[in-house]
Design brief:
The protein is about 50% helix and about 10% strand. By secondary structure, the chain is of the alpha+beta class.
Length: about 675
């Protein structure tokens, strides 16, 4: 095949698949056509799974998929299939389990698997080099060996495939159902304390991930040491190279212990989860640094990750011009040339730059000559006068940087990640008094409830106005939560009404009544994979089952639908053995479990929406850290349709009133903000 000729991927919407549309490999998207051809031609399927902003996916493409000789091997002996993991998390979840099984627990992208024509795996790996290295077979060698085995030792491969498939079908099944133990929260704190890097912040050594939802759980545990660990980590991430000091937002993770050298991808879900984390720290401590972090994240998201129609884009790549991080780094001379000798040297020293560069090139192990902007930990934060001098210099450098070749923007809009961002923006907007953030969340919610919904059924992805792919468990769970949080910011009853409907649909479409757990793929999806996908361990994003439970508990409690709360309890109890034995792997589930084990607060503010007294009562709640609370505004009949019990809770003596109920008992209503603050 001519390298310039488009293959089948050119007809797809995924930016990742489109990146491979002119490879000489005869790619297929996932679907029946590819597997039918594999059966007809009696060939193994080569399955490659990655995503548009994946650095090592780009490397493998350059080394192997653009190589004519390697493409010829693939085209002659295999049927090649490309999958965007972000478009098809169900496929990704299943085959990631296989990769981890084949590689001793290691996983990552790109994933490289070889399947029988009926989708059963016979071999799995991650990145494969273009030639034999360090005792590992190169990709062409592996292709020749597997092609030979398929012809000569097929029965052995089929036996292995059958064994792996049987094992796959048991993955994610609850192993030790039981009761939720309060001790799991204590053990979570102890494990995080053991992992804590007391010198440099964060948890574990290297690489270091933000782990936002895990660190957020620390804020929900008693003890000043938990808050201290969270604050140290928040400040280290803010000062380090993980943070984009010019453009705002955070990169995906730090490759080193010091938080200096990031993996330069920027993901929407990280911005949302970190926005939640910094907002909670601000509510807890009132420290301006955390409000600054929230504004920094939102400035980036609204400027660079927002679709004109209202949705939020998925990610920005790590690479530009074929080099990771090139868009973000500066030589000393570039800074001096841009800012002048005095300001350039001042800026460079403040941001930890060196004339020879401040990090080593991974390939050559030599100083790179480039600098990653960061605020060295030992120097602390710049003084106010220095900050005043630095602000215009940052703006000038950002303007110059914007003229560089930008990393690829993954401009697909994903429902689940948008749900995370809707909730985070709404909560932060209410807490920090930023109505523009709430407005952005409203527009994204409107986009999700129209463009990303067809005949009442959520869809997973939209790009350039084209929506498709039946929504998955995470789409329903995260969007339901996002709509709940948006309701608690704008108090439009339709938001809560839709959140409630999504929760009920989520139960209908994804819950297995026998197992008491949720599957990733809906029961109405006509495509059946070789095994169910069940997600319960938290990764970079909270797991689908945990997110479903948290949505059911919080929406159920606010709308007083205890049947939803009961379903969440059943699922958490089904996984109780795993939660109790490995609490550090289940922070999001523990957040939901904590709401069941400890009394929740149901707060109702009754009064006209625009009344000053009503607004003062609402602000008293919204600006506090109240992780066990849900909030409703009773200002008319519309909300009574969603929460009928509100009819009994109205203004008192003609004044707006606040009702605080806890553990199915309500305190006497109060009518002023100071009294409500005392109750809270």
């Amino acid at each position: 095949m001519n390298a310039k000729r488009a293959n089948r991927l050119a007809r797809e919407q995924s930016p990742y698949l489109l990146q491979h549309a002119h490879n000489p490999v005869d790619w297929y998207p996932w679907g029946p056509e590819a597997f039918a051809r594999a059966r007809d031609e009696d060939k193994l399927v080569f399955l490659s799974i990655g995503y548009a902003t994946c650095h090592w996916c780009h490397v493998m493409e350059r080394e192997s998929f653009e190589n004519e000789a390697t493409a010829r091997l693939l085209n002659e002996s295999f049927i090649s299939v490309k999958v965007d993991r972000e478009e098809r998390p169900d496929i990704d979840n299943i085959y990631m389990s296989v990769v981890q099984a084949f590689t001793g627990g290691h996983g990552g992208w790109p994933m490289s698997l070889f399947l029988t024509p009926d989708q059963r795996p016979v071999f799995a790996a991650t990145y494969l080099p273009p030639e034999n290295r360090y005792g590992r077979a190169g990709f062409p060698t592996l292709l020749r060996e597997l092609g030979k085995l398929w012809k000569q030792e097929r029965e052995r491969l089929l036996e292995q495939a059958q064994s792996v498939t049987q094992w796959l079908n048991a993955q994610g099944l609850p192993e030790n159902p039981g009761t939720l133990e309060p001790g799991a929260l204590k053990r979570f704190g102890e494990t995080m304390r053991a992992l804590y890097d007391s010198e440099l912040g964060g948890f574990g050594r290297a690489p270091k991930f933000p782990r936002s939802h895990a660190v957020s759980l620390l804020l929900r545990l008693p003890g000043q040491d938990h808050l201290a660990m969270a604050e140290h980590t928040a400040q280290a991430m803010w000062q380090g190279g993980l943070h984009d000091h010019l453009g705002g937002g955070f990169h995906r993770y730090s490759t080193d212990r010091e938080w200096l050298l990031p993996h330069f991808e920027k993901m929407l879900y990280d911005q949302a989860l970190l926005l939640d984390f910094y907002r909670e720290l601000f509510q807890l401590t009132g420290k301006p640094l955390y409000a600054d972090a929230c504004r920094d994240i939102m400035d980036y998201v609204l400027r660079d990750l927002r679709d004109e129609a209202g949705g939020f884009y998925s990610a920005e790549d790590a690479d530009s011009e074929g080099e990771e991080g090139k868009f973000y780094v500066w030589t000393w001379q570039e800074l001096v040339d841009a800012l002048g000798e005095d300001d350039g040297a001042f800026f460079a020293r403040t941001y930890g730059c060196r004339e020879g560069g401040n990090f080593r090139d991974e390939a050559t192990h030599q100083q790179s000559g480039a600098n990653i902007l960061h605020l060295p930990w030992h120097a602390g934060l710049p003084a106010p006068d220095a900050q005043a001098r630095l602000a215009p210099l940052r703006r000038k450098l950002l303007a110059l940087r914007s003229k560089r070749v930008r990393p690829l923007l993954d401009d697909k809009v994903l429902t689940d990640w948008n749900g995370l961002m809707i909730g985070a923006a709404a909560r932060a907007g209410a807490a920090l008094g930023e109505p523009g953030w709430i407005e952005a969340a409203q527009k994204a919610a409107d986009f999700a409830s129209t463009t990303l919904m067809r005949d009442g059924r959520l869809l997973h992805r939209c790009r350039k106005g084209q929506a498709g792919i039946p929504g998955f468990l995470e789409d329903y769970a995260f969007l339901a939560q996002g709509l709940l949080e948006l309701y608690q910011a704008d108090f439009e009853p339709a938001r809560l009404e839709l959140a409630l409907r999504l929760c009920r649909e989520m139960v209908r479409l994804f819950r297995d009544e026998k197992e008491k757990v949720f599957h990733t793929q809906g029961k109405d999806d006509p495509e059946r994979l070789i095994a169910p996908s069940r997600s319960f361990y938290d990764g970079a994003i909270p797991s689908g089952n945990a997110a479903a439970c948290l949505a059911l508990v919080r929406v159920g409690r606010l709308t007083q639908d205890e049947s939803l709360v009961s379903l969440a309890r059943q699922t958490l109890e089904a996984f109780a053995g795993e939660i109790n034995s490995r609490p550090e792997s289940h922070p999001y589930a523990l957040m939901a479990a904590q709401l069941l084990m400890e009394p929740m607060q149901e707060i109702v503010i009754a009064g006209p929406r625009h009344d000053e007294g009503t607004q003062a009562l609402l602000a008293t709640v919204q600006r506090r850290f109240l992780p066990r609370a849900v909030l409703a505004l009773h200002d008319g009949e519309d909300i009574e349709r969603v929460i009928p019990a509100l009819k009994a809770q109205g203004p008192v003596g003609g004044k707006p009133a606040a009702y605080l109920c806890e553990h199915f008992a309500c305190k006497a209503p109060v009518t002023d903000a100071a009294s409500l603050a005392a109750l809270l």
